[in-house]
Fold this protein.
Amino acid sequence: MKAIKDLELLKGMLAHDKASLLLVYGGLKPSAQVVMQGRPFGSTDDTIHIETSLIDTLSSILSELKLSHVNTVEIMEARTNDSSSMAQEVMRVYVAPSKRVALQLKAAFDNIQESHSNAGNLLGYPETAVKAFLTQDMLDWENHPTLTKDVSERNMRLLGHRLSKENWAEEVKYLESWGNFLKKISPSIYDEITKEL
């Protein structure tokens, strides 16, 4: 499929975000929020913008995958060690099979402080993990498992959310099916995410 080959080659988007798009396409994830950005930071006077051709390619990919999307664009600024300013254009893309769900996801992220549970549900995270997020029931990062009896070490690297202390073993089981799907549809994206560090 041309869209998958184009996605594999798309610059300005991390492999995890590319995988999220494919998981929505495959029906394994209800929606995704992904980021597209210009080349590395430049000076504020010379903001690095996302090339129009990359935006067009992404639109074409999403159209071929029959995914709806809503975009927002912002300029991210940062200070370097020498106190100079840097800026880069960032486009957040909210993707789902329907425009209604894409708009719901964008609305959840627009008000993330009060709607992180809604965002977690829309992204398809396990309910117990969503409920534990930002509570004392949330498992610390350093205690996240690297593999389980149900999920391989490579597939555990697909994990993109926090886990609960009580239910983490159940909350990660879906990663095995995600890994199997990604290996089949795009071995290069799968390998980029799951390779050993």
